[in-house]
Design goal:
mainly alpha, Four Helix Bundle (Hemerythrin (Met), subunit A), 2 domains, 7 helices
Amino acid sequence: MSSAATGGPGGAVGDEDRVMRPVTGPTTDVPGVPAVPLVRAVDPAPGAELPEPTEVPLLNVANLLTLTRLVLVPVFLLALFTGGGHHTGWRLIAFAVFVIASITDHVDGRLARKHGLITDFGKIVDPIADKALTGAALVGLSVLAELPWWITIVIAVREVGVTLLRFWVIRHGVIPASRGGKLKTLTQVFAIGAFLLPLPGWLVPVAWISMGAAVVLTVVTGVDYVLRAVRLRARGLRALAP
């Protein structure tokens, strides 16, 4: 890259490198308004350091929503098992808590992207919160004998494995969620919600079909994540090699 493009010695300084400084000279002259020096953009002196970009605070609204989702997990389990796990009113409460917690997953990610609140903490804790919520729901439904244990185990192994992979490659980078992963999460949420609701008999097949789709997407996206993690680690090791 040329010095002109980087604003180095002898090169032009872009607008993003300019700083606003008060300068002597003309002042505002509006009746009723105190006279203040005019401010104009000036090029920084050679070798001068520009202000560092503001760091994103750890306790921002997106991360707080993520933590809220973690807090709602035991609340959800309490509602699910109250009344023996088959009380209609408590099942509806458990469904409502599950839906609210799931909505925070969409909201916190959207806020983080829109307002520049993305942090490494959020990238790591957000998927953990998701897995804690879905895992608690699947285990709870299996304990109540409403969902086969093999489905819970397949999904749990994939989710725990992906979490371990995140830590395995965290030194080299963070793998963002793919479209397939987002679809997997959406399908899981829909399927679990269907199982939580006291559905009439004619709607039960909908719950089973959606859960089957969730299992397939869980396995496929899990394999894709393993491949992406291996490639990321390989690139990182090559970059570190002398």
